[in-house]
Amino acid sequence: MQGVISRCDGLPIGIVLVGTTSGWVHSHNRMHVAGGYNQPLVRHLVKWRKLRTLLLTVLILCLIPATRYYQIDQPLLRFFGGSRHVDPLSLHLSGEFVENNLGTEQNADGSVTVRMIAEQYLFIPHCIPVPAGAPVHLRITSADAVHSLTFNGTGSAVKVLRGTISEAQLQFPQAGEYKTVCREFCGAGHYAMRSELKVVPRDQFPALRAEERATCAQP
Ligand code: CUA
Question: Counting Cβ atoms within 10 Å, is residue 104 exposed (0-12), middle (13-18) or buried (19+)?
Fold first, then answer.
């Protein structure tokens, strides 16, 4: 579970430790009556304290994955059915992310599906055309490290994990251009990992040729 326990998790773990310890000390003080131990009370208290400590511990430990879910390792996510697996080693050879399947695909209902790969240190395709105002279903995976695809000027960010398909539903109301930038440190070339999203007027999009939908980057 790489990354699940990190610095920020020190707080909940600290609360568990302090809560547990103070529970024990408190129980001990109440059990110790003058001249000896009150046996029935001791048994009752120990039972109740144990249960309370257990519940508190479970509750607080649950907070860790709940707040750090995006750092949970892929095998664990897969185990819980939280993500779709794709083999990062054969992305270019077979399956959904082969080269001629990347780019923007028009769907019958007017929405589009965008398929992309993030890899050190580029997004493929380098330029994505989408129609203005249409729902955009983004499907992206990473060939190597963890990346984060963001669109400058919007609040959208998509975390991209190796071997996993990340999905997002986006929409860009106005025609224009957005710089797409990687916001997750992914290695030496991270700061150069950027590309483009071109939002074209909705009525012009169907006129684009197949290769223009695959990428809007100039050859
Ligand atoms: Cu990819 Cu930073």
Answer: buried
Are 102 and 89 in contact, with CB atoms under 8 Å apart? Answer: no
> Cα(182) to centroid of ligand 1, in Å?
4
Ligand 1 atom nearest 160 alpha carbon: 1
CA of 112 to the centre of ligand 1 (A): 25
Give phi and psi for 103, each to the nearest 5: 105, -155
User: Nearest Cα to 13, choosing from 60, 55, 66, 53?
Assistant: 60
Q: Which atom of ligand 1 is nearest to the CA of 145?
A: 1
Smallest CA separation from ligand 1 atom 1, residue: 147
pLDDT, residue 114, reads 95
Distance CA 119, CA 89 (A): 12
In this prediction, residue 4 has a pLDDT band, given cuts at 50, 70 and 90, of: very low
Measured from the CA of 186, which atom of ligand 1 is nearest?
2
Cis amide leading into 121 (omega within 30): yes
Pocket of ligand 1 (CB under 6 A): 121, 147, 182, 184-186, 190, 193
pLDDT tens, residue by residue, 69-119: 555 555 555 555 555 788 888 888 888 898 888 999 999 998 999 999 999
Phi, psi angle pair for 39, to nearest 5°: -60, -50
**Cα 129 to middle of ligand 1, angstroms:** 21
Select the more confidently predicted residue: 75 or 177.
177
